[in-house]
Design a protein that fits this description.
alpha+beta; Cytochrome p450; four-stranded mixed β-sheet; three-stranded antiparallel β-sheet; 16 helices; 12 strands; about 10% strand; binds protoporphyrin IX containing FE
């Protein structure tokens, strides 16, 4: 393909990018507004395009075959960029998101059983209990006052992950984690100066000191919980499993510092994304009463008013389709980490030079004109078994793909089905009249300024 054509392409038809930094507002569920106005129209139409940024050219891979090349077939050629690993490293140390090479491989192997189906089944009753307790709180709300659903979903997913990891009530940890993450996010904003030699090192050292300070309380608490587990082994929570885990090949356990890094990674990666997905689900249902009615019918049929359990999850097929379709239109992580080509390569016929940054962007792949029928329409039925047959596996990548696919995907999906089924049985959520939802895209994508909604009893 001709890269220059792609660079100069007009934007998506009917899609005018807002002036810089202005919020992007959605007027309908199927509004094609992009949270990434820098990505040009051609990215949604061609397999791979080359674009320019302030720090040079980069490649956007939208085609499922191209995604497969980067994430699976030639994965050894595409490690995460050094820059991104350093930034994530400030937050997560040597946790799975920020490590690479042998360290990542050994830790991923060691941790896999703690995220496998039997472990997720053990966490599920806690998730169901937390969803029920949360529903009871919503039931006490005074009528006529909107709640911030994005905030509430964050608190609920924090509570659920706290219980899965520590088998403990998450309130205190949740407060510390929220303060830590917000402070750390503010401290890790990237600027042009981060690309200037010497100044970049000074900025990184300052950033590390600030993040260490905001995480100090949390680190002390995690250290105490690790020490408790070491003194009394045998627990089934995620932390106990990580402490007890041994690498299947070498028999080596993780050190306390490594366990700490994994725990902070799991906390951050595991609640913010799930909360974003749940927020978009409530938004989508409020916009599409027809979909909501089908969901309610399924809940009535499968559960008949009782609360869901782990055993119900496979039977709540339409709930799962609503979740899948919401994450297609609003992927919680709309762009995965940038990868860097170690050697020159070719993706879908486009030459990739050695050293070039390569981006796989779920937002783009999920709305690719060549692979989805009416890509901007919200249609959960497209995820039925029949409609999914024949769709390329790599056309749908909310959890990434290949060896670095999200380790928590099945935990997250189980959690979302249980939370959706518990709450949608009791409530329907509605936006205040005239309220327009805006998208905020940092690492995750969530409603800007929260998601005010009325919680109505069904
Ligand atoms: C809807 C919820 C979630 C979404 C959309 C999501 C999305 C993703 C994506 C796209 C990646 C790959 C990033 C890349 O290739 O650059 C990833 C990795 C990861 N996720 Fe998730 N995630 C979710 C929930 C969770 C949960 C619940 C946990 C843990 C309990 C978790 C832990 C992780 C970890 C540790 C990694 C790094 C894996 C590795 O590099 O080996 N995520 N996630």
């Amino acid at each position: 393909m001709d890269a220059r054509v792609a660079e100069d392409s007009p934007r998506l038809a009917g899609w005018s990018p807002p002036p810089e930094k202005a919020p992007i507002r959605l007027t309908r569920i199927d509004d094609p507004q992009s949270p990434m106005p820098q990505i040009v129209r051609a990215a949604y139409e061609r397999p791979v395009i080359r674009q320019m940024s302030a720090i040079g050219p980069f490649y956007v891979v939208g085609d499922p075959e191209g995604v497969k090349r980067v994430f699976l077939d030639n994965v050894a050629n595409y490690p995460k960029t050094e820059m991104e690993r350093r930034f994530f490293g400030v937050l997560f140390g040597n946790g799975l998101l920020s490590s690479d090479g042998d360290t990542w491989r050994a830790h991923r192997r060691t941790m896999a059983p703690a995220f496998a189906p039997p472990a997720v089944a053990a966490y599920a009753p806690g998730m169901a209990d937390d969803a029920r307790a949360f529903a009871e709180r919503w039931a006490q709300l005074p009528p006529g006052e909107p709640v911030d659903v994005a905030h509430d979903m964050t608190r609920l997913t924090l509570q659920i992950i706290s219980r899965a990891v520590f088998a403990t009530d998450g309130a205190a940890l949740g407060d510390m984690m929220e303060a830590g993450v917000n402070g750390a996010m503010a401290a890790t904003q990237v600027g042009v100066l981060d690309f200037v030699p010497l100044i970049d090192k000074w900025r990184m050292a300052r950033r590390e000191a600030r993040v260490a300070a905001v995480f100090a309380d949390l680190d002390a608490m995690v250290a105490r919980l690790i020490a408790e587990r070491e003194a009394a082994p045998g627990g089934t929570d995620l932390l106990s499993r990580l402490i007890a885990a041994r690498d299947g090949e070498t028999g080596v356990a993780m050190t306390a510092q490594e366990v700490r890094d994994q725990v902070v990674t799991i906390f951050v990666a595991g609640h913010e994304t799930t909360a974003a997905a749940m927020s978009w689900i409530w938004y989508a249902l409020s916009q599409r009463p027809d979909v909501e009615a089908k969901l309610h019918a399924e809940l009535g049929e499968v559960l008949g008013g009782r609360d869901p359990t782990h055993e119900d999850v496979p039977n709540l097929a339409y709930a799962r389709m609503v979740i899948d379709e919401t994450m297609r239109l609003y992927p919680p992580a709309p762009g995965t980490s940038t990868r860097q080509a170690l050697a020159a390569d070719e993706i879908c016929g486009v030459k990739i030079p050695k050293g070039a940054p390569v981006c796989v962007v779920p937002w783009v792949t999920h709305r690719h004109r060549a692979h989805w029928d009416q890509p901007d329409r919200f249609m959960p039925e497209r995820f039925s078994k029949e409609a999914s047959a024949g769709r390329p596996r790599y056309a749908y990548i909310p959890f990434g793909a290949g060896p670095r696919v999200c380790i928590g995907a099945s935990l997250a999906l189980t959690e979302m089905v249980l939370v959706l089924a518990t709450l949608a049985q009791r409530f329907r959520l509605r936006l205040p009249p005239g309220h327009e939802v805006a998208i905020q895209h940092r690492v995750t994508m969530r409603p800007l300024g929260g998601l005010p909604m009325f919680v109505e009893r069904r």
